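Subject: for your reference before the review

Hello V.,

The reviewers asked for a structural picture of the protein, and I figured it would be easier to keep everything in one thread rather than splitting it across files. Below is the amino acid sequence we used in the manuscript, unchanged from the supplementary table.
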Amino acid sequence: MTTEQLFDGRPRDMTPERVRVRYEKACQMIADLCKPRTHPEHRDWTMSIPARPDYDPDLVIRDSLDDIPTLLERLEAAEARAERAEAELARMRSVVEAAEAFVRATRGLFGGTVDVFSPDVAERTWERVHEALVALDAAREETHGDA
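And here is what came back from the structure prediction:
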């Protein structure tokens, strides 16, 4: 990578793999800088001209630190989406429960297990269906703010 490529304004590769590579490289760079001079893996702090983005400690470390704002934005956006999804799920729960009640109320109408022509059965079935529909409409209105 050349200095021109480093500062040319192209979008960063923010795939988890590339972020992890930059992070591990920066961690290793810091570890090597902190080792005693007598240690075989010790590194001196160097700043080259022209800059060497894959070698100079300041550029390697900065390259990893540059990922943090984007990662924080993505994390905050993901958390906000999760909160909205949980709220929508909570709002929809009453609609689902009302729909299930409607299905229970109408079960047997079309299955042939109930004599729908019996006035007593028809009246009770209609009452259950009507109650379920009213509950379903109320749940929908509450969920979506419909009037």
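For the response letter, the relevant points are probably these. Residues 67-106 form the longest helix (40 residues). The CA atoms of residues 99 and 134 lie 10 Å apart.

Happy to draft the paragraph if you're swamped.

O.
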